[in-house]
Please model this.
Amino acid sequence: MGLRSILGQRATPRANKARSWGHVSSQCDICIIEHDADDRKLMQGMLSQAGYDCISVHDGDGGWECIKQYKPKVIVCDWTLPKRSGLAVCRKLREKPDLASTFFIMVAPSDEPQSRDVALESGVDDYFIKPLDRASFLARVRVGRRMWEANDRLRCAAITDGLTGLYNHDHLTGVIDREMNRSRRYGHRLSFIMLDLDFFKAVNDTYGHLVGNATLVEVARIIEQNVREFDTVGRFGGEEFAVVAPEASLEDAIAMSQRIRRSVADTMNIPELHGHQVTISIGVATADDARVRSSADLLDLADRALYVAKRAGRNQVTSALDVTDAENHIAVEHDEIEALRRRVAVLVTQGKEVYMQSVSSLVQALEEKDPFTARHSQNVAYYCELIGSYLGHSESLIASVRNAGLLHDLGKVGIPDRILVKPTELSALETTVMRQVPEISVRILDHLRILDSEMHFIRHQSEYFDGSGFPDGLCGKQIPIGSRIILVANAFDAMSTDRVYRPSSSIEESAAELRRAAGTQFDPRVVDALLTLIKTHRREIQHRIKSTAASLRLPAPAV
Model:
Protein backbone atom coordinates (compact mmCIF):
# COMPACT_ATOMS: atom_id res chain seq x y z
CA MET A 1 0.00 0.00 0.00
CA GLY A 2 1.41 3.37 -1.03
CA LEU A 3 2.17 6.31 1.21
CA ARG A 4 -0.56 8.52 -0.28
CA SER A 5 -3.34 5.94 0.13
CA ILE A 6 -2.31 5.08 3.68
CA LEU A 7 -2.33 8.69 4.83
CA GLY A 8 -5.66 9.19 3.08
CA GLN A 9 -7.32 6.66 5.41
CA ARG A 10 -7.55 9.20 8.20
CA ALA A 11 -10.46 10.93 6.43
CA THR A 12 -13.01 8.70 8.20
CA PRO A 13 -11.97 8.62 11.85
CA ARG A 14 -13.18 5.83 14.02
CA ALA A 15 -14.11 8.31 16.73
CA ASN A 16 -16.99 9.51 14.54
CA LYS A 17 -18.60 6.13 15.01
CA ALA A 18 -18.99 6.80 18.75
CA ARG A 19 -18.78 3.11 19.59
CA SER A 20 -17.90 3.21 23.27
CA TRP A 21 -19.20 0.34 25.43
CA GLY A 22 -22.90 0.54 26.27
CA HIS A 23 -23.64 3.19 23.63
CA VAL A 24 -26.89 2.72 21.69
CA SER A 25 -25.92 3.11 18.07
CA SER A 26 -29.49 3.43 16.70
CA GLN A 27 -30.25 7.11 16.22
CA CYS A 28 -33.15 8.99 14.66
CA ASP A 29 -33.16 12.47 13.15
CA ILE A 30 -36.16 13.92 14.95
CA CYS A 31 -38.10 13.05 18.12
CA ILE A 32 -41.59 14.58 18.32
CA ILE A 33 -43.09 14.84 21.81
CA GLU A 34 -46.63 16.12 21.32
CA HIS A 35 -49.79 15.37 23.33
CA ASP A 36 -52.29 16.44 20.66
CA ALA A 37 -52.76 13.50 18.27
CA ASP A 38 -53.66 15.68 15.27
CA ASP A 39 -50.64 17.98 15.71
CA ARG A 40 -48.39 14.96 16.26
CA LYS A 41 -49.62 13.31 13.06
CA LEU A 42 -49.27 16.58 11.12
CA MET A 43 -45.66 17.15 12.25
CA GLN A 44 -44.65 13.55 11.58
CA GLY A 45 -46.17 13.69 8.12
CA MET A 46 -44.34 16.90 7.18
CA LEU A 47 -41.01 15.64 8.46
CA SER A 48 -41.34 12.23 6.81
CA GLN A 49 -42.17 13.86 3.47
CA ALA A 50 -39.07 16.03 3.87
CA GLY A 51 -36.96 12.89 4.22
CA TYR A 52 -36.35 12.89 7.97
CA ASP A 53 -36.26 9.73 10.07
CA CYS A 54 -38.51 10.59 13.00
CA ILE A 55 -40.27 9.01 15.93
CA SER A 56 -43.17 10.43 17.97
CA VAL A 57 -44.55 10.00 21.49
CA HIS A 58 -47.43 11.62 23.36
CA ASP A 59 -46.17 12.26 26.91
CA GLY A 60 -43.09 13.56 28.73
CA ASP A 61 -41.96 10.31 30.32
CA GLY A 62 -42.24 8.46 27.03
CA GLY A 63 -40.39 11.29 25.35
CA TRP A 64 -37.50 11.06 27.79
CA GLU A 65 -37.23 7.29 27.31
CA CYS A 66 -37.22 7.84 23.54
CA ILE A 67 -34.45 10.44 23.86
CA LYS A 68 -32.29 8.09 25.96
CA GLN A 69 -32.76 5.19 23.54
CA TYR A 70 -32.51 6.88 20.13
CA LYS A 71 -30.32 9.95 20.80
CA PRO A 72 -32.22 12.21 18.34
CA LYS A 73 -30.47 15.08 16.61
CA VAL A 74 -33.48 17.42 16.96
CA ILE A 75 -36.34 17.34 19.48
CA VAL A 76 -39.68 19.02 18.77
CA CYS A 77 -41.49 19.17 22.11
CA ASP A 78 -44.85 20.52 23.22
CA TRP A 79 -44.91 22.90 26.21
CA THR A 80 -47.77 21.07 27.97
CA LEU A 81 -47.44 17.30 28.32
CA PRO A 82 -48.81 14.57 30.62
CA LYS A 83 -46.45 13.08 33.23
CA ARG A 84 -43.50 15.41 32.51
CA SER A 85 -43.67 18.92 31.08
CA GLY A 86 -41.74 20.05 28.02
CA LEU A 87 -39.55 22.27 30.22
CA ALA A 88 -38.80 19.32 32.53
CA VAL A 89 -37.76 17.22 29.52
CA CYS A 90 -35.46 20.00 28.32
CA ARG A 91 -33.85 20.51 31.74
CA LYS A 92 -33.25 16.76 32.05
CA LEU A 93 -31.70 16.72 28.59
CA ARG A 94 -29.27 19.52 29.48
CA GLU A 95 -28.02 17.51 32.46
CA LYS A 96 -26.62 14.83 30.12
CA PRO A 97 -23.20 15.62 28.60
CA ASP A 98 -23.63 12.98 25.89
CA LEU A 99 -26.75 14.80 24.64
CA ALA A 100 -25.22 18.29 24.65
CA SER A 101 -25.43 18.61 20.84
CA THR A 102 -29.17 17.86 20.70
CA PHE A 103 -31.17 20.80 19.29
CA PHE A 104 -34.36 21.41 21.29
CA ILE A 105 -37.38 23.16 19.72
CA MET A 106 -40.23 24.10 22.06
CA VAL A 107 -43.78 24.35 20.69
CA ALA A 108 -45.98 26.70 22.76
CA PRO A 109 -49.72 27.49 22.58
CA SER A 110 -49.21 31.27 22.92
CA ASP A 111 -46.43 33.82 22.53
CA GLU A 112 -45.93 35.18 26.04
CA PRO A 113 -42.56 36.93 26.58
CA GLN A 114 -42.23 35.52 30.08
CA SER A 115 -42.76 31.95 28.84
CA ARG A 116 -40.23 32.46 26.05
CA ASP A 117 -37.65 33.71 28.57
CA VAL A 118 -38.24 30.76 30.88
CA ALA A 119 -37.87 28.34 27.96
CA LEU A 120 -34.60 29.85 26.76
CA GLU A 121 -33.19 29.89 30.29
CA SER A 122 -34.08 26.19 30.59
CA GLY A 123 -31.93 25.31 27.58
CA VAL A 124 -34.43 25.53 24.71
CA ASP A 125 -32.69 26.38 21.39
CA ASP A 126 -35.73 27.53 19.40
CA TYR A 127 -39.31 28.43 20.19
CA PHE A 128 -42.40 28.78 18.01
CA ILE A 129 -46.14 29.12 18.40
CA LYS A 130 -49.01 26.98 17.19
CA PRO A 131 -50.60 26.65 14.67
CA LEU A 132 -47.79 25.22 12.58
CA ASP A 133 -46.67 26.86 9.37
CA ARG A 134 -45.12 24.19 7.15
CA ALA A 135 -42.36 26.30 5.63
CA SER A 136 -41.35 27.88 8.94
CA PHE A 137 -41.51 24.55 10.78
CA LEU A 138 -39.29 22.71 8.28
CA ALA A 139 -36.84 25.65 8.13
CA ARG A 140 -36.41 25.55 11.91
CA VAL A 141 -35.85 21.80 11.85
CA ARG A 142 -33.24 22.18 9.08
CA VAL A 143 -31.42 24.80 11.15
CA GLY A 144 -31.50 22.46 14.15
CA ARG A 145 -30.12 19.59 12.09
CA ARG A 146 -27.28 21.77 10.75
CA MET A 147 -26.46 22.96 14.28
CA TRP A 148 -26.34 19.37 15.50
CA GLU A 149 -23.99 18.37 12.67
CA ALA A 150 -21.70 21.35 13.32
CA ASN A 151 -21.55 20.60 17.03
CA ASP A 152 -20.97 16.92 16.35
CA ARG A 153 -18.03 17.72 14.05
CA LEU A 154 -16.54 19.90 16.79
CA ARG A 155 -17.07 17.16 19.37
CA CYS A 156 -15.42 14.56 17.16
CA ALA A 157 -12.50 16.87 16.44
CA ALA A 158 -12.03 17.40 20.17
CA ILE A 159 -11.77 13.68 20.91
CA THR A 160 -10.00 12.48 17.77
CA ASP A 161 -6.32 12.09 16.95
CA GLY A 162 -5.82 14.07 13.75
CA LEU A 163 -3.37 11.63 12.16
CA THR A 164 -4.84 8.18 12.78
CA GLY A 165 -8.51 9.00 13.30
CA LEU A 166 -8.48 7.08 16.60
CA TYR A 167 -9.59 8.54 19.90
CA ASN A 168 -7.02 10.87 21.42
CA HIS A 169 -5.29 10.61 24.80
CA ASP A 170 -7.72 12.81 26.74
CA HIS A 171 -10.81 10.99 25.52
CA LEU A 172 -9.22 7.60 26.06
CA THR A 173 -8.39 8.37 29.69
CA GLY A 174 -12.02 9.42 30.17
CA VAL A 175 -13.17 6.09 28.74
CA ILE A 176 -10.82 4.24 31.09
CA ASP A 177 -12.26 6.12 34.08
CA ARG A 178 -15.85 5.39 33.06
CA GLU A 179 -15.24 1.72 32.35
CA MET A 180 -13.32 1.34 35.61
CA ASN A 181 -16.28 2.79 37.52
CA ARG A 182 -18.63 0.46 35.64
CA SER A 183 -16.39 -2.49 36.44
CA ARG A 184 -16.31 -1.65 40.14
CA ARG A 185 -20.05 -0.98 40.42
CA TYR A 186 -21.40 -3.89 38.42
CA GLY A 187 -18.64 -6.46 38.75
CA HIS A 188 -17.88 -6.50 35.00
CA ARG A 189 -14.53 -7.62 33.67
CA LEU A 190 -12.24 -5.00 32.19
CA SER A 191 -8.86 -5.27 30.49
CA PHE A 192 -6.50 -2.57 29.29
CA ILE A 193 -3.91 -3.07 26.55
CA MET A 194 -0.92 -0.78 26.02
CA LEU A 195 0.94 -1.04 22.67
CA ASP A 196 4.20 0.58 21.59
CA LEU A 197 6.01 0.39 18.24
CA ASP A 198 9.53 -1.03 18.52
CA PHE A 199 12.43 1.21 17.43
CA PHE A 200 10.06 3.74 15.89
CA LYS A 201 12.62 6.53 16.16
CA ALA A 202 14.78 4.59 13.68
CA VAL A 203 11.88 4.62 11.18
CA ASN A 204 11.55 8.39 11.45
CA ASP A 205 15.29 8.99 11.31
CA THR A 206 15.91 6.62 8.38
CA TYR A 207 12.85 7.10 6.17
CA GLY A 208 11.48 10.48 7.28
CA HIS A 209 8.44 11.65 9.20
CA LEU A 210 5.99 11.15 6.32
CA VAL A 211 6.83 7.45 6.24
CA GLY A 212 6.69 7.41 10.03
CA ASN A 213 3.19 8.93 9.92
CA ALA A 214 2.11 6.38 7.30
CA THR A 215 3.40 3.63 9.59
CA LEU A 216 1.32 4.94 12.51
CA VAL A 217 -1.80 5.11 10.32
CA GLU A 218 -1.30 1.55 9.11
CA VAL A 219 -0.71 0.23 12.63
CA ALA A 220 -3.89 2.01 13.78
CA ARG A 221 -5.81 0.26 10.98
CA ILE A 222 -4.41 -3.15 11.95
CA ILE A 223 -5.31 -2.66 15.63
CA GLU A 224 -8.89 -1.73 14.69
CA GLN A 225 -9.21 -4.84 12.53
CA ASN A 226 -8.24 -7.12 15.41
CA VAL A 227 -10.44 -5.80 18.25
CA ARG A 228 -14.13 -6.27 18.99
CA GLU A 229 -16.84 -3.84 17.91
CA PHE A 230 -17.33 -2.46 21.43
CA ASP A 231 -13.66 -2.06 22.35
CA THR A 232 -12.24 1.47 22.40
CA VAL A 233 -8.99 2.08 20.51
CA GLY A 234 -6.92 5.23 20.90
CA ARG A 235 -3.56 6.77 20.19
CA PHE A 236 -2.08 7.29 23.61
CA GLY A 237 0.75 9.50 22.41
CA GLY A 238 3.66 9.36 19.97
CA GLU A 239 4.00 5.75 18.85
CA GLU A 240 1.89 4.41 21.75
CA PHE A 241 -1.61 3.03 21.30
CA ALA A 242 -4.12 1.62 23.78
CA VAL A 243 -7.24 -0.56 23.80
CA VAL A 244 -9.92 -0.47 26.49
CA ALA A 245 -11.60 -3.89 26.43
CA PRO A 246 -14.75 -4.23 28.58
CA GLU A 247 -15.94 -7.74 29.44
CA ALA A 248 -12.56 -9.18 28.45
CA SER A 249 -10.66 -11.47 30.80
CA LEU A 250 -6.89 -11.39 30.95
CA GLU A 251 -6.79 -14.45 28.68
CA ASP A 252 -9.13 -12.77 26.16
CA ALA A 253 -7.01 -9.62 26.13
CA ILE A 254 -3.79 -11.60 25.69
CA ALA A 255 -5.28 -13.50 22.73
CA MET A 256 -6.41 -10.21 21.16
CA SER A 257 -2.95 -8.72 21.72
CA GLN A 258 -1.24 -11.68 20.07
CA ARG A 259 -3.46 -11.25 16.99
CA ILE A 260 -2.47 -7.59 16.78
CA ARG A 261 1.22 -8.34 17.28
CA ARG A 262 1.27 -11.02 14.57
CA SER A 263 -0.68 -8.85 12.12
CA VAL A 264 1.68 -5.91 12.57
CA ALA A 265 4.75 -8.11 12.08
CA ASP A 266 3.35 -10.12 9.14
CA THR A 267 1.03 -7.85 7.15
CA MET A 268 2.51 -4.33 7.27
CA ASN A 269 3.04 -3.31 3.64
CA ILE A 270 4.51 0.16 3.13
CA PRO A 271 6.81 0.22 0.06
CA GLU A 272 8.68 3.25 1.37
CA LEU A 273 9.98 1.11 4.27
CA HIS A 274 11.94 -1.01 1.73
CA GLY A 275 11.36 -4.26 3.57
CA HIS A 276 12.00 -2.92 7.07
CA GLN A 277 9.93 -5.04 9.48
CA VAL A 278 7.78 -3.12 11.94
CA THR A 279 7.05 -4.86 15.24
CA ILE A 280 5.11 -3.92 18.32
CA SER A 281 5.42 -4.68 22.05
CA ILE A 282 2.29 -5.04 24.16
CA GLY A 283 1.45 -4.96 27.88
CA VAL A 284 -1.88 -6.25 29.23
CA ALA A 285 -3.53 -5.68 32.62
CA THR A 286 -6.96 -6.39 34.07
CA ALA A 287 -9.10 -4.67 36.67
CA ASP A 288 -9.41 -7.99 38.53
CA ASP A 289 -5.75 -7.72 39.55
CA ALA A 290 -5.44 -7.16 43.31
CA ARG A 291 -2.97 -4.34 42.65
CA VAL A 292 -5.59 -2.36 40.73
CA ARG A 293 -7.68 -0.01 42.86
CA SER A 294 -8.22 2.78 40.34
CA SER A 295 -8.02 3.51 36.63
CA ALA A 296 -4.57 5.02 37.23
CA ASP A 297 -3.43 1.69 38.74
CA LEU A 298 -4.80 -0.21 35.73
CA LEU A 299 -2.98 2.07 33.30
CA ASP A 300 0.23 1.91 35.32
CA LEU A 301 0.19 -1.89 35.53
CA ALA A 302 -0.29 -2.23 31.75
CA ASP A 303 2.54 0.23 31.21
CA ARG A 304 4.80 -1.80 33.50
CA ALA A 305 3.87 -4.99 31.60
CA LEU A 306 4.77 -3.20 28.36
CA TYR A 307 8.14 -2.26 29.84
CA VAL A 308 8.76 -5.93 30.73
CA ALA A 309 7.99 -6.88 27.10
CA LYS A 310 10.50 -4.27 25.89
CA ARG A 311 13.21 -5.54 28.25
CA ALA A 312 12.55 -9.15 27.22
CA GLY A 313 13.42 -8.42 23.58
CA ARG A 314 10.37 -6.63 22.09
CA ASN A 315 7.83 -8.00 19.56
CA GLN A 316 5.96 -9.87 22.29
CA VAL A 317 2.99 -9.68 24.64
CA THR A 318 3.49 -9.53 28.40
CA SER A 319 0.69 -9.61 30.96
CA ALA A 320 0.55 -8.09 34.42
CA LEU A 321 1.14 -11.58 35.81
CA ASP A 322 4.74 -11.17 34.66
CA VAL A 323 5.12 -7.90 36.58
CA THR A 324 6.68 -8.49 40.00
CA ASP A 325 8.17 -6.14 42.55
CA ALA A 326 11.55 -6.84 40.95
CA GLU A 327 10.13 -5.71 37.59
CA ASN A 328 8.87 -2.40 38.96
CA HIS A 329 9.57 0.91 37.30
CA ILE A 330 13.07 1.75 36.12
CA ALA A 331 15.26 2.34 39.14
CA VAL A 332 15.42 6.04 39.95
CA GLU A 333 18.82 7.42 40.84
CA HIS A 334 17.89 11.03 41.56
CA ASP A 335 17.62 11.69 45.28
CA GLU A 336 14.95 14.36 44.93
CA ILE A 337 12.62 12.00 43.00
CA GLU A 338 13.04 9.27 45.60
CA ALA A 339 12.31 11.79 48.37
CA LEU A 340 9.13 12.84 46.57
CA ARG A 341 8.09 9.21 46.24
CA ARG A 342 8.46 8.76 50.00
CA ARG A 343 6.37 11.87 50.62
CA VAL A 344 3.60 10.52 48.39
CA ALA A 345 3.68 7.21 50.27
CA VAL A 346 3.27 9.07 53.57
CA LEU A 347 0.32 11.05 52.16
CA VAL A 348 -1.35 7.86 50.98
CA THR A 349 -0.95 6.30 54.41
CA GLN A 350 -2.36 9.39 56.09
CA GLY A 351 -5.26 9.44 53.64
CA LYS A 352 -6.15 5.83 54.47
CA GLU A 353 -6.03 6.61 58.20
CA VAL A 354 -8.35 9.58 57.78
CA TYR A 355 -10.64 7.44 55.64
CA MET A 356 -10.90 4.71 58.29
CA GLN A 357 -11.43 7.29 61.04
CA SER A 358 -14.26 8.79 58.99
CA VAL A 359 -15.97 5.43 58.57
CA SER A 360 -15.59 4.65 62.29
CA SER A 361 -17.02 8.00 63.34
CA LEU A 362 -20.01 7.55 61.04
CA VAL A 363 -20.82 4.14 62.53
CA GLN A 364 -20.38 5.54 66.03
CA ALA A 365 -22.87 8.33 65.26
CA LEU A 366 -25.37 5.72 64.09
CA GLU A 367 -24.85 3.59 67.21
CA GLU A 368 -25.57 6.57 69.48
CA LYS A 369 -28.87 7.06 67.66
CA ASP A 370 -29.95 3.42 67.34
CA PRO A 371 -27.78 0.58 68.77
CA PHE A 372 -29.95 -2.04 67.06
CA THR A 373 -29.44 -0.52 63.60
CA ALA A 374 -25.70 -0.17 64.23
CA ARG A 375 -25.40 -3.86 65.12
CA HIS A 376 -27.52 -4.78 62.10
CA SER A 377 -25.21 -2.74 59.87
CA GLN A 378 -22.15 -4.55 61.23
CA ASN A 379 -23.83 -7.88 60.45
CA VAL A 380 -24.76 -6.78 56.93
CA ALA A 381 -21.15 -5.71 56.33
CA TYR A 382 -19.97 -9.15 57.49
CA TYR A 383 -22.37 -10.98 55.13
CA CYS A 384 -21.47 -8.63 52.26
CA GLU A 385 -17.79 -9.45 52.67
CA LEU A 386 -18.49 -13.18 52.77
CA ILE A 387 -20.65 -13.07 49.63
CA GLY A 388 -18.26 -10.82 47.70
CA SER A 389 -15.34 -13.12 48.47
CA TYR A 390 -17.31 -16.24 47.54
CA LEU A 391 -18.31 -14.71 44.19
CA GLY A 392 -14.66 -14.03 43.42
CA HIS A 393 -14.75 -10.24 43.18
CA SER A 394 -11.61 -8.12 43.52
CA GLU A 395 -10.37 -7.01 46.94
CA SER A 396 -11.21 -3.39 46.22
CA LEU A 397 -14.80 -4.22 45.22
CA ILE A 398 -15.25 -6.43 48.29
CA ALA A 399 -13.98 -3.59 50.50
CA SER A 400 -16.39 -1.14 48.89
CA VAL A 401 -19.36 -3.51 49.33
CA ARG A 402 -18.40 -4.16 52.94
CA ASN A 403 -18.19 -0.43 53.67
CA ALA A 404 -21.50 0.15 51.91
CA GLY A 405 -23.09 -2.59 54.02
CA LEU A 406 -21.71 -0.93 57.14
CA LEU A 407 -23.12 2.46 56.13
CA HIS A 408 -26.28 1.47 54.24
CA ASP A 409 -28.64 2.48 57.08
CA LEU A 410 -26.78 5.63 58.08
CA GLY A 411 -29.77 7.71 56.96
CA LYS A 412 -31.78 6.37 59.90
CA VAL A 413 -30.18 9.09 62.03
CA GLY A 414 -32.76 11.40 60.39
CA ILE A 415 -35.78 9.15 61.06
CA PRO A 416 -37.89 9.88 64.20
CA ASP A 417 -37.56 7.31 66.99
CA ARG A 418 -41.34 6.76 67.05
CA ILE A 419 -41.04 5.29 63.54
CA LEU A 420 -37.82 3.33 64.09
CA VAL A 421 -39.09 1.53 67.20
CA LYS A 422 -42.80 1.41 66.37
CA PRO A 423 -44.06 -2.03 67.50
CA THR A 424 -46.94 -2.16 65.01
CA GLU A 425 -47.19 -1.93 61.23
CA LEU A 426 -46.07 1.37 59.70
CA SER A 427 -48.61 3.65 58.07
CA ALA A 428 -48.33 4.59 54.39
CA LEU A 429 -46.78 7.93 55.32
CA GLU A 430 -44.29 6.30 57.72
CA THR A 431 -43.35 3.77 55.03
CA THR A 432 -42.66 6.65 52.63
CA VAL A 433 -40.40 8.24 55.25
CA MET A 434 -38.49 4.97 55.73
CA ARG A 435 -37.99 4.63 51.97
CA GLN A 436 -35.95 7.83 52.10
CA VAL A 437 -33.21 6.17 54.20
CA PRO A 438 -30.91 5.29 51.22
CA GLU A 439 -31.13 8.83 49.80
CA ILE A 440 -30.48 10.34 53.25
CA SER A 441 -27.47 8.05 53.66
CA VAL A 442 -26.06 9.20 50.32
CA ARG A 443 -26.70 12.85 51.24
CA ILE A 444 -24.71 12.43 54.47
CA LEU A 445 -21.80 10.81 52.59
CA ASP A 446 -21.92 13.22 49.64
CA HIS A 447 -18.76 15.17 50.48
CA LEU A 448 -16.66 12.12 51.33
CA ARG A 449 -15.67 11.57 47.69
CA ILE A 450 -13.47 8.59 48.53
CA LEU A 451 -16.74 6.69 49.12
CA ASP A 452 -18.16 7.25 45.61
CA SER A 453 -18.60 3.52 44.92
CA GLU A 454 -20.15 2.96 48.33
CA MET A 455 -22.64 5.78 47.77
CA HIS A 456 -23.68 4.23 44.46
CA PHE A 457 -24.24 0.84 46.11
CA ILE A 458 -26.23 2.42 48.96
CA ARG A 459 -28.44 4.50 46.67
CA HIS A 460 -29.61 1.42 44.77
CA GLN A 461 -29.83 -1.01 47.71
CA SER A 462 -33.64 -1.26 47.34
CA GLU A 463 -33.71 -2.04 43.60
CA TYR A 464 -35.33 -5.43 42.96
CA PHE A 465 -34.06 -7.94 40.42
CA ASP A 466 -37.38 -7.85 38.51
CA GLY A 467 -37.36 -4.04 38.28
CA SER A 468 -40.09 -3.40 40.88
CA GLY A 469 -37.82 -1.70 43.43
CA PHE A 470 -36.79 1.92 43.92
CA PRO A 471 -35.51 4.63 43.42
CA ASP A 472 -34.96 4.06 39.67
CA GLY A 473 -36.68 0.76 38.91
CA LEU A 474 -33.45 -0.87 37.72
CA CYS A 475 -33.55 -4.58 36.98
CA GLY A 476 -31.16 -7.50 36.63
CA LYS A 477 -27.57 -6.57 35.90
CA GLN A 478 -28.51 -2.90 35.57
CA ILE A 479 -28.39 -2.91 39.38
CA PRO A 480 -24.85 -2.44 40.76
CA ILE A 481 -23.48 -5.76 42.00
CA GLY A 482 -22.76 -4.19 45.41
CA SER A 483 -26.43 -3.17 45.75
CA ARG A 484 -27.58 -6.69 44.88
CA ILE A 485 -25.29 -8.13 47.55
CA ILE A 486 -26.43 -5.61 50.20
CA LEU A 487 -30.10 -6.38 49.51
CA VAL A 488 -29.62 -10.11 50.17
CA ALA A 489 -27.35 -9.59 53.21
CA ASN A 490 -29.76 -7.00 54.63
CA ALA A 491 -32.78 -9.28 54.19
CA PHE A 492 -31.09 -12.30 55.78
CA ASP A 493 -29.96 -10.41 58.88
CA ALA A 494 -33.34 -8.69 59.20
CA MET A 495 -35.16 -12.04 59.09
CA SER A 496 -32.76 -13.96 61.35
CA THR A 497 -32.68 -11.42 64.20
CA ASP A 498 -35.50 -10.10 66.36
CA ARG A 499 -37.28 -6.84 65.60
CA VAL A 500 -39.46 -4.77 67.90
CA TYR A 501 -42.44 -5.59 65.68
CA ARG A 502 -41.82 -9.33 65.12
CA PRO A 503 -39.74 -12.28 66.34
CA SER A 504 -36.86 -13.64 64.31
CA SER A 505 -37.05 -16.54 61.88
CA SER A 506 -34.71 -19.51 62.04
CA ILE A 507 -31.77 -19.75 59.67
CA GLU A 508 -33.66 -22.37 57.64
CA GLU A 509 -36.80 -20.22 57.45
CA SER A 510 -34.76 -17.18 56.42
CA ALA A 511 -32.93 -19.20 53.77
CA ALA A 512 -36.23 -20.55 52.42
CA GLU A 513 -37.62 -17.01 52.11
CA LEU A 514 -34.52 -15.87 50.22
CA ARG A 515 -34.84 -18.86 47.89
CA ARG A 516 -38.54 -18.09 47.30
CA ALA A 517 -37.81 -14.48 46.28
CA ALA A 518 -34.75 -15.28 44.13
CA GLY A 519 -35.32 -13.98 40.63
CA THR A 520 -37.98 -11.48 41.68
CA GLN A 521 -36.65 -9.49 44.63
CA PHE A 522 -33.12 -10.93 44.79
CA ASP A 523 -30.35 -11.83 42.36
CA PRO A 524 -30.44 -15.66 42.23
CA ARG A 525 -26.64 -15.85 41.96
CA VAL A 526 -26.19 -13.81 45.15
CA VAL A 527 -28.83 -15.86 46.96
CA ASP A 528 -27.12 -19.12 45.94
CA ALA A 529 -23.83 -17.75 47.25
CA LEU A 530 -25.29 -16.90 50.67
CA LEU A 531 -27.11 -20.24 50.94
CA THR A 532 -23.84 -22.05 50.27
CA LEU A 533 -22.07 -19.88 52.84
CA ILE A 534 -24.76 -20.63 55.43
CA LYS A 535 -23.86 -24.30 55.09
CA THR A 536 -20.09 -23.80 55.21
CA HIS A 537 -20.09 -21.09 57.92
CA ARG A 538 -23.06 -22.35 59.97
CA ARG A 539 -21.38 -22.20 63.38
CA GLU A 540 -19.93 -18.74 62.76
CA ILE A 541 -23.30 -17.37 61.59
CA GLN A 542 -25.13 -18.92 64.56
CA HIS A 543 -22.68 -17.29 66.93
CA ARG A 544 -23.18 -13.89 65.26
CA ILE A 545 -26.98 -14.14 65.52
CA LYS A 546 -26.82 -15.12 69.21
CA SER A 547 -24.25 -12.46 70.09
CA THR A 548 -26.44 -9.82 68.42
CA ALA A 549 -29.36 -10.82 70.62
CA ALA A 550 -27.12 -10.84 73.72
CA SER A 551 -25.62 -7.41 73.01
CA LEU A 552 -29.09 -5.90 72.64
CA ARG A 553 -30.50 -7.92 75.57
CA LEU A 554 -32.98 -9.73 73.37
CA PRO A 555 -34.14 -13.33 73.91
CA ALA A 556 -31.75 -15.75 72.23
CA PRO A 557 -33.26 -16.72 68.87
CA ALA A 558 -33.87 -20.31 67.85
CA VAL A 559 -31.21 -20.73 65.19
In short: The chain has three domains: 22-159, 169-327, 346-551.
